Each structure stands twice: as structure tokens, then as C-alpha cells.
Amino acid sequence: MRTVIYSMSVSLDGFTAGPGGDISWTAPDQEVFSFHVQQTREIGAHLMGRGLYEDMLVWETPEEWWSDPEAPEFAGIWQAIPKVVFSTTLDSVQGHARLASHDVADEVAKLKEAPGEGVIAVGGPGLASTLIKLDLIDEYRLFVIPVVLGGGTPYFPPLDAALELDLLETRTFGSRVTYLRYQRSRRG
Questions:
Q1: Could you say which of 51, 53, 86, 106 has the lowest number of CB atoms within 10 Å?
Q2: 52, 8 contact by CB (below 8 A)
Q3: Phi, psi (5° rounding) for residue 126?
């Protein structure tokens, strides 16, 4: 059965975006971007909401302004990933994407049971919060950036009960970004 992961950059105080939706502080350096490229190779399907889908459209066509030499490689990997977009406002999507035809729990169940390899990635804190509350996320992957924002969009939604996690991996990059990989605790 495939693993469902939620991976995003997060401030030290737990926000994926600052006040007003600012994400300028999340731009990765070359070392972190290379790690993102490696991890993107592991994705067999990607679930996302409208906002992330629209933000990621830039990767659907090569652009001259890409300054990172790994950008075309990432774009090629990204374009090949099957994507499921949850939106009540979009009529159509492009690339290797489709609009969700079922609720999120049904879509996740179908993808987990489907043949194929790779993890199922969940993108965006809004959609992820739904999956967290439904206990459908198996792994949490945080890229903790040493900045305190004081407010914004939280990585984790408010929960009715504690979410116990087991640390699987940690890595600190030269830019002081710390990667933390947790799985849902299997205790109890």
C-alpha cells in the first residue's frame, strides 16, 4: 500500500506562509532544491487544491527565467506526475492533472490501493488539514526554515486530540534549513 506524505517548508513557529500569504522566505538554495528534486522523484501521485495547482503551473512549460540549473530536470519530473486537483471553481485543468471526481477520503483510498509505485503527496496546508483531521497522512516532511513569522497559514490545523509522531530522519543543510521526517506513531 502506498504512503501518503505531507511535505512543505515551515517557519520555526509553524507557518507555511506569513501574513498576507507571503512565501518569499521559502525560496530554497541550491542544496535544498537538489534535495527537493530527489524527493520529487519518489512521488507517484500528487493531491492538491486550486491554489497550489495554479502556483505550480509555472513548471508545466520551460521558462528562460529559471536560474537554477536543475529547474528543467525538476520541471520534467513534475510534469510526469499524475495530479488530482480538488476545486469547486475550476472547470478544467491542464497537463497530467485531473479534477477530483470523489471526496478526498475516497480519492486517497483509490490511490493507495492502485497499482504503481511512489508516494502520494499532499500539497498545500488547506487540503492537508482535511487529510490530517481524517487521519489519512502517513508521513510529515517539514523543511524548517529558521525564521519566526508571528502569524500566517499554519502547517498543522487545530486538532481535537494530540497527533503522536515518530522521527524517521533529520538533516540540516548549509543554509540552516532543517529537514524533519516523521511518521504517524504506531504505538497504542
A1: 106
A2: no
A3: -65, -55
Q: Measured between alpha carbons, how far is 95 from 170 in angstroms, rounded to an integer?
A: 34
User: What are the C-alpha distances in Å from 88 to residues 22, 34, 51, 92?
Assistant: 24, 34, 12, 11
Residue 152 identity (one-letter amino acid) = G
Contact 3/45 with Cβ under 8 angstroms?
A: no
Q: Which tens digits make up the pLDDT trace of 138-154?
A: 999 999 999 999 999 99
Read off φ and ψ for residue 72, nearest 5 degrees.
-60, -35
Q: How far apart are CA 23 and CA 15, in angstroms?
A: 10
Q: What is the pLDDT of residue 68?
A: 67
* Predicted confidence (pLDDT) at residue 111 exceeds the cutoff of 70: yes
CA atoms of 5 and 119, how far apart (whole Å): 7
Could you tell me the residue ranges of all domains in the chain? 4-184
In the DSSP assignment, the letter for residue 143 is E
CB neighbour class for 165 (10 Å; exposed up to 12, middle 13-18, buried from 19): middle
Q: pLDDT-based confidence at 105, cuts 50/70/90?
A: very high
pLDDT of residue 116: 86
Q: What is the dihedral angle through the alpha carbons of 134, 137, 140, 141, rounded to the nearest 10 degrees?
A: -130
How many whole angstroms separate alpha carbon 176 and alpha carbon 145?
7
